[in-house]
Amino acid sequence: MKNFFKIFIALVIGVFVISCEKDEDQAVLGEGTNPSLAADAKVLILDKDHENDKAIKFDWVNPKFNIQVAFNNAFEIAKIGTNFQNAKSIDVAAKDQTITYTIRDFNKIMLDAGILPGTASQIEVRLRSKVGNVTLYSNSVAITVTPYLTELPSFYLVGDASAVGWDAATSQLLYKKDNYSTIYTYLENGKSFRFLGQQDWNPINYSLDTAGMNANYKYFKTWSTNLVAAPAENIQFSGTTGMYKIVIDADATQKSITVTPSPVNNWNPANVYLVGTINGWNAATSIPMTSLGNGKFEHTIALPAGSQFKFLGQQSFGDLDWGNITDDGNTGYLGPKGSNGNIQFDGTGGNYKITVNVKLGVYTIKPI
C-alpha cells in the first residue's frame, strides 16, 4: 500500500512539473505579433498562352516572439465573404519570406481552390503561422482573379485494393467522357489505392484533400463514406469486397469521387458467352469463350464489318450481362446490365481475338 501511495505521489508531481514546464515555455515564447502579408497584384487575368510568365509575388513578415523560433507557414485562400471556411491551404517554406508564382502554378492553385475558370472571382489570401500550439494569422489580401480551364486530367487506378496491385506500369486508366472518369471494377475491403496521372509514380498523384496528406497529392474535395485517408498518401476502401462503379467528377468546382456497388457483383463467372449479330442475337446459341481464370475470357472469331455483340454469363438474357459502358460504342470499357449498350465493331472484316476481363471491367478486340 505504501509503495502504491509513493508511486501515485510521484505521478502527480511528474504531471505538475511537465505542466509547469509547458507554462514556462509559453511564458518564454510570449503571445507573439501577428504576421503581415502583401501581394504585388490586385487583379489577375491568367492567360494559358503565357503560363510560364510571372503571375503574382507575395511577401510576408513572420510573427515576432520573445525567443527565436521556427515557423510552419501556409497561405489560406478562399472566396471573399466566406470567412476562410473550407479555405485552400498551401504550405510555404521560403526562408527569405517571399514567393513568386507563375501563371500556370497560380492557375492550378485557383482551380484546386474551386475558383471557376473563365470568370472573374474575388478571393482573399492570408498567411497562417504556427509555432507549437500557437496559431497566428496575417491581414487578408484581396485579389480579383480569372483562371483559365486546363485539360481535364486522366486517372489511373493503382493499389492492393484493386485487381491491378501496386505496379504503376499496369495501373488502370478510367474511361473519360467530358468531366467524368468512370469504371466498373473490383475493390477489396480494408485495402488501399490511389490514382496516378500517368502509368508511372511521377509526376502526378491524386488523393484526398485532407489534413496530413502530401500537399501535392491533395485533389478530391468530397468522397463517398466508404473511403478514408490512409497512410502513405493512399485511400482506404471500407466497403464489402466486390464489383464497384467508380466515378470521378473532375469539374473544377467538384473534384469528387464516389464508389457505389455495381448492379452485377460477379467478377469471376464460371462461363462467358458472345451474343450478337454474329449469331443472330440468339442467346440460346450464344458462343462460349475460353476461360483464362480470374474473370478473364477470350475467343477468336471472324467478325464482319459492322458487327455488334455483348457478353453473357449464361446462355440466356439473364442477370449476367455486360456490354459497352453506358451506351452503344467501342470504348474498351465494360458496363453491367442496366448500364450498358452494344459493343459496335468498327474495324474491317477478318479474324479477331476478343478478350474480356470482367474483374477489371475492360475488353479488347484485336486482329490476328
Give an account of the 3D structure.
32% of the residues are buried. Strands 10, 11, 14, 15, 16, 18 and 19 form a seven-stranded mixed β-sheet that branches. Strands 22, 23, 26, 27, 28, 29 and 30 form a seven-stranded antiparallel β-sheet that branches. This protein has 368 residues and is mostly beta strands. β31 and β32 (362-367) form a beta hairpin. It has two helices and 32 strands. The chain has helices spanning 2-29, 103-112, and strands spanning 36-39, 43-45, 54-61, 72-79, 88-92, 98-102, 121-131, 134-137, 141-146, 156-158, 172-173, 175-177, 180-187, 192-196, 205-208, 218-220, 222-223, 227-230, 234-237, 242-249, 256-261, 273-276, 287-288, 290-293, 296-303, 308-312, 321-325, 334-336, 340-341, 343-344, 350-357, 362-367. Residues 4-27 have low confidence and may be disordered. The termini are far apart. It is elongated and about 85 Å long.
